[in-house]
Design a protein that fits this description.
Helix content: 55-70%
CATH architecture: Orthogonal Bundle
Number of helices: 7
Structural class: mainly alpha
Number of strands: 0
CATH topology: Cytochrome Bc1 Complex, Chain D, domain 2
CATH superfamily: Cytochrome c-like domain
Oligomer: single chain
Radius of gyration: 16 Å
CATH class: Mainly Alpha
Order of helices and strands: HHHHHHH
Length: 126
């Protein structure tokens, strides 16, 4: 579980840094300097919702056997972070013994279906 949490945190930072650099057109060195100075990332623009949460709720039932009907460990994550995590598992970039079953399930899903699941999960509240 800790390894997954660290992975998600890393993906979140990667997404945040990539979005910030792309949006601001500032070189990464300026972004790193801002983080060192303020101790925080600059505000990020909200990413547009891409998936259909209602469809994602139905698709998520395939995931609930392992993650539970109320996946508190995934609540509060952004759609982009969830999508990136699922894509990394699907592509084999992120692997671990416990991930093999998840990879098999995700390999049978399309990118729009992953976006639907991400939209559903990102909308859940603690």
């Amino acid at each position: 579980m800790r390894q997954f949490a660290l992975f998600v945190a890393g993906v979140a930072l990667f997404v945040a840094l990539g979005t910030t650099v792309a949006e601001s057109q500032n070189p990464p060195s300026l972004l790193i300097e801002e983080i060192k100075t303020t101790g925080a990332l600059p505000p990020l623009p909200p990413l547009p919702k891409v998936g259909n949460a209602a469809a994602g709720k139905k698709l998520y039932q395939r995931c609930a056997g392992c993650h539970g009907q109320v996946p508190t460990h995934l609540m509060g994550l952004s759609e982009g972070v969830l999508m990136a995590a699922m894509q990394n598992v699907q592509s084999g970039t992120f692997t671990a013994p416990k991930i093999i079953q998840m990879q098999a399930m995700l390999n049978n899903m399309t990118q729009p279906q992953l976006a639907d699941i991400a939209a559903y999960l990102s909308g859940l509240q603690n």
